[in-house]
Write a structure and sequence with these properties.
By secondary structure, the chain is of the alpha/beta class. Helices cover about 30% and strands about 25% of the residues. Bound molecules: cytidine-5'-monophosphate.
Length: about 240
């Protein structure tokens, strides 16, 4: 290696898409709902594959998924498909094992991103990679909590106000060394606990991932009103690019 240059480690996209999304109450799983001419999942996957440091990816699908249609990913990058599991963490584990079977090394990095976050910007992804790849325990996009937080009582009245100091809302993508994340997810599963994101598995394994400031437009499509919101975010971005 010549002085002043450093090797960029391979980064793989991992997109868990095996959820059913009951809160959307639609016949089609939310990751396949149409959004400006493409299914939601395609926006999410392509936002990762468009980044030059991402060498390929894997999508974890439900066992009875009738909706997935592959497309030619940009720049000749390979996109693998694998059957996911009962919980999100199981789907991510299957995806990581698929990468290991297909030449990824433990020292490669993975960017785990919800199939239902179609509005990730290049700027936020670049920030995550720029800061996260030099942090040995990995990193995640998150936004500092801005609103006052209330804890509710059983009857939906306020039980107490909770301090928002040092609180962040975790988003995806989340970026980790493949081998560390694989071990952390396996350990969390063996311990019998439910982890709701990859960072939590890393925390349980004793690591401290870096929080990198994300954007509030990186919405997760969960409820019916979220789809028109995503549509207006993408439209506004498109119009700005045309100006
Ligand atoms: O259900 P939730 O909104 O938390 O799901 C976040 C992401 O995890 C979605 O992209 C969903 O498809 C995925 N998931 C999965 N396997 C599961 C459950 C959720 O891949 N068993």
């Amino acid at each position: 290696m010549t002085p002043g240059t450093h090797r960029v480690p391979p980064v793989w996209a991992v997109v868990p898409a095996a959820g059913v999304g009951r809160r959307m109450a639609t016949r089609i799983p939310k990751q396949y709902l149409p959004l400006l001419g493409h299914p939601v999942i395609r926006w999410s996957v392509e936002s990762l594959l468009a980044e030059s440091r991402v060498v390929g990816g894997v999508v974890a699908l439900g066992a009875d998924d009738h909706w997935w249609h592959s497309w030619t990913p940009p720049h000749g990058k390979t996109l693998y498909c694998v059957i996911g599991g009962a919980a999100r963490a199981d789907s991510v584990l299957e995806a990581l094992r698929c990468l290991r079977r297909n030449m990824a090394r433990p020292g490669d990095w993975v960017l785990v991103h919800d199939a239902v976050r179609p509005c990730l910007t290049t700027a936020a992804l670049t920030r995550l990679l720029d800061q996260g790849l030099s942090h040995a325990h990995g990193a995640l996009l998150a936004i500092p909590v801005r609103d006052t937080l209330k804890r509710s009582a059983a009857d939906a009245t306020v039980a107490e106000t909770t301090s928002r100091d040092s609180l962040w809302q975790a988003q995806t993508p989340q970026l980790f060394p493949l081998g560390l994340l694989l071990d952390a997810l396996e350990a969390a599963r063996d311990a019998g606990g439910q982890v709701t994101d990859e960072a939590q598995a890393m925390e349980l394994a004793g690591y401290a991932p870096l929080l990198v400031e994300g954007e509030s437009t990186n919405v997760k499509i969960t409820r019916p009103g979220d789809l028109p919101l995503a549509e207006s975010i993408l439209r506004a971005r498109h119009h700005r690019q045309e100006d």
